[in-house]
Amino acid sequence: MGRVEMVEDNATENTETGSSAYVPSLQLTKGQPSPFAANGGLSYMSFDHNGDAGTAAAMKAALTQISSGEGQAVLDMLDRAPVGPIETKWGTGFRTYEECLEYIKANDIKAPEGGLALPLHYTINEQPSYSIVTSNALWRDPSREAEAQVLRKDEEDNMRRCLYFPQVMRDARRIEEYYPGLSPNSPECMDRLGV
């Protein structure tokens, strides 16, 4: 089932169940890759059941993903990597901000006028991440303690699945210098560049 079909099917389902959850339509930016998100970017609100805003579906997806072991495989890879830079498909990553900053200085990475060269923290796990709000009944339900522990550990592990990467940020106010005629305040800028 495609994403558009899924949206239409869920809209019908919500009408039939009497759900009052507002589900924004899925909108994609022309020319940009598909979202790096669960359900192809479709809101979990689309899976609302009895007013839970899709929380049950999100928890089920989170537990299924955790049990697949992919997140743990990323942690194992990082734990086995030698001290120092870690080569990834996105470039050279570092465990700490300081290591990455030293790399930027040692390699004389410069930013254009108005820009910055700095370490930025990114996940290297190509799976969605989940976070259960502290007000959720799960955390107070003794019969779900095992689920709570698994979800809590995975949320903590999400930070361990991140590395710092050297990035050069340009001043968006100068975007017309790089793309003549393109204003950072225009919808065309979002359509063309995603910013």
Word description of this protein:
The chain has 195 residues and is of the alpha+beta class. The chain has two domains: 1-53, no CATH class; 69-193, no CATH class. The chain contains seven helices and four strands. The chain has helices at 3-17, 55-68, 70-80, 97-106, 145-160, 175-178, 187-193, and strands spanning 86-88, 91-93, 116-123, 162-169. It has a two-stranded antiparallel ribbon. Strands 3-4 form a two-stranded antiparallel sheet. β1 (86-88) and β2 form a beta hairpin. The longest helix has 16 residues, at 145-160. It is flat, with a radius of gyration of 21 Å. The two termini are 30 Å apart. Residues 1-17 have low confidence and may be disordered.
Give a nutshell description of this structure:
The chain is 39% helix and 11% strand. With 195 residues, it is an alpha+beta fold. The strands form two sheets. It has a two-stranded antiparallel sheet. It has a two-stranded antiparallel sheet with strand order 3-4.
Keywords:
alpha+beta; two-stranded antiparallel ribbon; flat
Please render the helix and strand layout as text.
Elements: H1 3-17, H2 55-68, H3 70-80, E1 86-88, E2 91-93, H4 97-106, E3 116-123, H5 145-160, E4 162-169, H6 175-178, H7 187-193
Antiparallel strand pairs: 1-2, 3-4
